[in-house]
Amino acid sequence: MIPEGSLLAAHDLRKTYGSTPALDGASFSVHPGEVVAVMGPSGSGKSTLLHCLAGIITPDSGTITYAGRELSAMSDAERSALRRSEFGFVFQFGQLVPELTCVENVALPLRLNGVRRKAAERTALEWMERLEVDDLGSKRPGEVSGGQGQRVAVARALAGSPKVIFADEPTGALDSLNGERVMELLTEAARSANVAVVLVTHEARVAAYSDRDVTVRDGRARDLEHSA
Ligand SMILES: Nc1ncnc2c1ncn2[C@@H]1O[C@H](COP(=O)(O)OP(=O)(O)OP(=O)(O)O)[C@@H](O)[C@H]1O
Ligand SMILES: [Mg+2]
């Protein structure tokens, strides 16, 4: 039921909002260090699948296993701790904290995990350098461009040394040049740190950066590489 060697796996997920089925028997898995693109039309259930995998919402039925542990068997506090220490997130509009500088934003996951400010900001700057935004450290998110903001958001997702990054349309608000640079840097950094990436996207040129594509249709996920 859980594919061998997978880090995160979902089996037969179902989730209904009122009478709308958002997930209708979706299965999914990702290996350590693997970049998987989740594609499919609007409303097909991609974000719902990502939110279930990340333990943000609970499916009505089905199982999700992370590193051998079932998410449904954990308490809310355990799931929160898991999200904080093992997962990183990048969303369409960055979701940076506007009151904090860019370096403080990137350092945030480390600070939440108890790392002292100086050490956290040192690590944050190293990631910002890799994402080519280290010169923006003292600026606030409102003072940087969309592409720069997304690279800061990617640096933040990586700074806490996560095992999985969840990215929902991370380039959706960017032009194609900026989008490709963000994808290049995100996938390069993730692969070198052996971080798995679950990447939701509409765009084939974004999915081209993945190792494997999964298509979601009507709440069902279909693995393009491993199914006939
Ligand atoms: N919080 C919610 N309340 C009610 N219905 C919802 C909610 N979230 C999602 N849905 C419905 O569930 C279905 C799947 O939504 P989901 O957001 O997962 O789609 P998606 O594939 O991410 O779409 P998009 O590409 O537009 O982001 C849709 O029919 C949507 O309207
Ligand atoms: Mg969505």
Characterization of the model:
- It is a single chain.
- With 228 residues, this protein is an alpha/beta fold.
- It is built from 7 helices and 10 strands.
- The strands form 2 sheets. Strands 6-7-8-3-9-10 form a 6-stranded mixed beta sheet, sandwiched between helices. It has a 4-stranded antiparallel beta sheet with strand order 2-1-4-5, covered by helices on one side.
- Bound molecules: adenosine-5'-triphosphate and magnesium ion.
- The site of magnesium ion has 3 residues, from helix 1.
Keywords:
10 strands; globular; binds magnesium ion; single chain; six-stranded mixed β-sheet; alpha/beta; binds adenosine-5'-triphosphate; 35% helix; four-stranded antiparallel β-sheet; 228 residues
Give a concise summary.
With 228 residues, the protein is an alpha/beta fold. It has 7 helices and 10 strands. It has a 6-stranded mixed beta sheet, sandwiched between helices.
Distance between the termini: 18 Å
| Principal-axes shape call | globular
**Overall mean pLDDT:** 92
Strand line-up across the major sheet: 6-7-8-3-9-10
Element-level helix/strand string: EEEHEEHEHHHEHEHEE
The residue ranges in which pLDDT falls below 50 over 5 or more consecutive positions are none
Query: How many strand elements?
Result: 10
Radius of gyration: 17 Å
Q: Count of helical segments?
A: 7
Strand residue percentage:
25-35%
Q: Describe the biggest sheet?
A: 6 strands, mixed
